[in-house]
């Protein structure tokens, strides 16, 4: 029984190292040591159920608690940075490493090795496939991007500029969100008009057309727009 225990633990350790090496080489939040510990720890918990003789029901119950615990651990590596979510793939890798450890602890070595191979293929081969898909044109992608459009004009031209912006933004496929003004300088001689809108990236040329039209106005001194991070369109 002792030899069987060491064999199960070594199998979990080896699978954890294989998965962790790939994460470590990519400098991810959870690298070699973390993933190896997750796989080995999951194996130890499940092996406890085997050693205490609680049967299949006991092992299954312990495995369920392992999944819950790894869920909290995975949440710790997920971060939000400037509107985008980072670390979801690493959290999923931790979850899979725990599953591999559970399989090793239960003595199912072939499924454990198969799971390790699948994780490695997913994080390497499918990674390159994802990059290839992301570099394709965005015309067919179901995305929405928020844009901030700014115009600086004379105080007496503010109403005219606001009306032009409102009329330009009212036509589809532009989704007009807000329109605001603020004084530039203490004398209030210059006004900055800011419009916020949402638009599919493939229609970005429409913003340039609006900017060109406004730049020809006599009282306008500058026109510009900035695109924020694109996000999937709501279903």
UniProtKB/TrEMBL annotation:
Virulence factor required for growth in low Mg(2+) medium and for intramacrophage survival. May be involved in regulating membrane potential by activating Na(+)/K(+)-ATPase. Belongs to the MgtC/SapB family. Residues 147-225 form the MgtC-like C-terminal domain. It comes from Pararobbsia silviterrae. It is a multi-pass membrane protein. Residues 9-131 form the MgtC/SapB/SrpB/YhiD N-terminal domain. Its main location: membrane. The chain crosses the membrane at residues 6-22, 34-53, 59-79, 91-110. GO terms for cellular component: plasma membrane. This is Protein MgtC. Keywords: Cell inner membrane, Cell membrane, Membrane, Transmembrane, Transmembrane helix. The keyword Transmembrane applies. It is found in: Cell inner membrane; Cell membrane. It comes from the Bacteria.
